[in-house]
Write a structure and sequence with these properties.
Chain A: It is found in: Cell membrane. Chain A: This is Carbohydrate ABC transporter permease. Chain A: One of its GO terms (cellular component) is plasma membrane. Chain A: It is a multi-pass membrane protein. The complex is a heterodimer of chains A (288) and B (367). By secondary structure, chain A is mainly α. Chain A has two domains: 44 residues; 209 residues, MetI-like fold (Orthogonal Bundle). Chain A is 72% helix and 0% strand. Chain A is built from 15 helices and no strands. The longest helix of chain A has 44 residues. Chain A is globular, with a radius of gyration of 25 Å. Chain B has 367 residues and is mainly α. Chain B starts with a helix and ends with a helix. Chain B has a two-stranded antiparallel ribbon with strand order 1-2. Among the domains of chain B are: 176 residues, MetI-like fold (Orthogonal Bundle); 36 residues, no CATH class. The chains are: A mainly alpha (288), B mainly alpha (367).
């Protein structure tokens, strides 16, 4: 008896070790597939055009050059970056504020029509974004704001999924907190602003990241909201680089440099706030 | 007792004030636009002036007829080509990205595994990066003499010129198996067809160029779905799995009978999001191929955009968008039907029956 059980144990341990080894092998293989494109992106952006084409696999740039970045800054790239920053900041601030307001009302304030508003919100979330391209252009044009900053910002200001996230979070805050303030005579907005909102920090951070990332990476809306080159954002400007002025030649370093620079801000936000994203990032997922 | 009423009125006022900015923005940039576009899809508006001006011709269902009817000509064959492309795209992307995400989550969920955070981050990172940046990187990776072809070259494989290759994968596979000659398709398939495309064209499969976009999207999206599966897996109590193991179930048995049923709601979520997302593919097509080569990466979303903003055929473009909307709606409804919980339906029915019986009993008692 005792011998058989002591024989069985190492066998189990061996099998576990084998599974673990297999798991690491699989994970390392896929980690390579996931990280290598970014390595290529970084190294290629420091290569010369001919080096990039001749030695695409080489992990070092020979000669090492900043010329792709210099040429990139001779284009409208800086202007696009400024536009992207302006639009992203406005959209993020607006979205976080408006989504929390609406989310709080739907979670906590009792008013007639609340159920109907919530149903409407769910219906809105079900409308696929891409079919709205032409409709949105029609309205922007009709309102006379096509080709302006408001056209870039206003339609992105509210995100039904964001309202949903905030509503769900506010519902987890105990009501007793607000009651104390209400007895002291604080107004609803005062309670929302000074009592509830500070308690909603994790949800606010999550919404900030999602809004930042969503508006920084947005492409289709910017395509249809303006055609004025002064209003191009990074996604629109860089996206048309390939088909336009730089697409003809084999100018891979410059497109890799552009891709690298526009990835850096989201990468920083991602690594700083990762824990919030991993926990809640799936809540607002709608990317294809 | 006037205090409660004034509080209630104050609450109503506050409630509507809080939701009104959201309602205004969503109404103005979502509800109103959809109605406007619906109107435009029944007109011949050319993009100049107001679509409501008196000179705009109301053409009834002509735009829709042009998409699916006999007189459609080039428009119809373009639209059908885009539907075919997107169909094969969805057919490959949704199952593959779901299976791949589930696979990664299962591997990462192993106990005793170290550095889970590193791998999770690596797999999730592409999900937060702009589709434009990723498209540019893939343009380079899959260029004629690019990274992928150099790697294939190293193992003695002559890679295709990915983005210039419009050959369909099914055509190539059939050719490889000796079923047909791809450069001289069988007449029965090539000479007959439906909706403006020959059977041969319908059955092409995704082109080589489209399969690069397929790989890109699976690579990008799997991370998000992996997180969803991971979250669900962590909800599954270890004891349940252990109990099944003690009862003599093998790894595969536990997976099939314990893990998979537990993941069903997540599976529904992941496949629904996948379906909605894949029928809308646009960014990658816009940046990488603009529908080419040979229209083999054309998708309804991109075609609709191009018809409106490049060809000024707004009515037809709006009609395309609405047809696309119907397709997405039908697909997700059908899929929800497939995933419907048979047990829950049975319980609901049983509950209704008992209620009815009880109501009959009480009604009888009262009489």
């Amino acid at each position: 008896m005792s011998t058989s059980s002591s024989n069985a144990k190492p066998m189990v341990r061996d099998r576990t070790a084998l599974w673990l080894f297999l798991a690491y092998a699989v994970l390392l293989f896929f980690a390579f597939i996931y990280l290598y494109p970014f390595v290529v992106q970084v190294t290629t952006s420091f290569k010369t055009n001919s080096d990039a084409v001749a030695n695409p696999l080489s992990p070092t740039a020979d000669p090492f050059t900043l010329s792709a970045f210099q040429r990139l800054f001779d284009t409208d790239f800086p202007l696009w970056a400024v536009n992207s920053v302006i639009v992203t900041v406005l959209v993020t601030v607006g979205r976080v504020f408006l989504c929390s307001l609406a989310g709080y009302a739907l979670a906590r304030i009792k008013f007639r029509g609340r159920g109907a508003v919530f149903t409407a919100l769910l219906a809105v979330m079900a409308v696929p974004g891409v079919i709205l391209l032409i409709p949105k252009f029609l309205v922007l044009n009709y309102l006379g704001i096509y080709n302006t900053y408001p056209a870039l910002v206003l339609p992105l200001l509210v995100d039904a999924a964001g309202v949903f996230i905030m509503k769900q979070f506010f519902e987890t805050i105990p009501e007793s907190v607000e009651e104390a303030a209400r007895i002291d005579g604080a107004s609803t907005f005062r309670i929302f602003w000074s009592v509830v909102l500070p308690m909603a920090r994790p949800a606010l951070i999550l919404l900030t990241i999602l809004s930042f990332q969503g508006s920084w990476n947005e492409l289709p809306h910017f395509l249809i909201a303006s055609q004025d080159p002064d209003l191009f954002t990074l996604t629109k400007g860089v996206g048309t680089l390939t088909s336009g002025q730089l697409g003809s030649g084999q100018q891979y370093p410059i497109s890799m440099a552009a891709a690298l620079l526009m990835t850096i801000p989201v990468a920083i936000v991602f690594f700083v706030f990762q824990k919030y994203l991993v926990r809640g990032g799936t809540a607002g997922a709608e990317k294809g | 007792m006037s205090r409660p009423r004034s509080i209630r009125r104050g609450q109503a006022l506050a409630g509507w004030t809080f939701v009104s900015p959201t309602l205004v923005v969503l109404g103005l940039f979502l509800a109103v636009p959809v109605l406007m576009a619906l109107w435009v899809s029944f007109t011949d508006w050319n993009g100049r002036g107001s679509p409501f001006a008196s000179g705009i011709g109301f053409v009834g269902a002509d735009n829709y007829r042009e998409l699916v009817g006999e007189q459609g000509g080039l428009t119809r064959s373009d639209f059908m080509t885009s539907l075919r492309n997107n169909f094969f795209y969805v057919l490959l992307v949704v199952p593959l990205q779901t299976a791949f995400a589930l696979f990664l989550a299962l591997v990462l969920n192993q106990r005793m595994l170290r550095a889970v955070g590193f791998f999770r981050t690596a797999f999730y990172f592409p999900s937060v990066v702009s589709s434009v940046a990723i498209s540019l990187v893939f343009l380079f990776l899959f260029s004629g003499g690019g990274v992928v072809n150099s790697m294939l070259d190293a193992i003695g494989v002559d890679g295709p010129t990915w983005f210039n290759d419009s050959r369909g994968l099914l055509h190539l596979v059939g050719d490889g198996l000796g079923l047909w000659n791809a450069s001289d398709p069988p007449g029965a398939l090539a000479d007959n067809g439906v909706l403006g495309l020959s059977w041969w064209a319908w059955l092409s499969g995704p082109s080589v160029a489209l399969s690069v976009i397929i790989m890109l999207v699976i690579w990008t999206t799997a991370g998000t779905f992996m997180l969803m599966f991971l979250a669900a897996l962590q909800d599954l109590p270890l004891e349940v799995e252990e109990a099944a193991r003690i009862d003599g179930a093998g790894r595969w048995g536990v997976f099939r009978n314990v893990t998979l049923p537990h993941l069903k709601p997540t599976m529904l979520l992941v496949t629904t999001l996948g379906l909605i997302g894949t029928w809308q593919v646009f960014d990658q097509v816009y940046v990488m191929t603009q529908g080419g080569p040979g229209k083999s990466t054309l998708t309804p979303a991109y075609l609709s955009y191009a018809y409106a903003f490049e060809n000024q055929k707004w009515g037809i473009a709006a009609a395309m968008a609405f047809v696309l909307f119907l397709i997405i709606f039908a697909m997700t409804s059908f899929q929800r039907f497939l995933f419907r919980d048979k047990d829950a339906i049975a319980t609901k029915r049983a509950a209704k029956r008992t209620k009815r019986d009880r109501a009959r009993v009480t009604a009888g008692g009262a009489a």
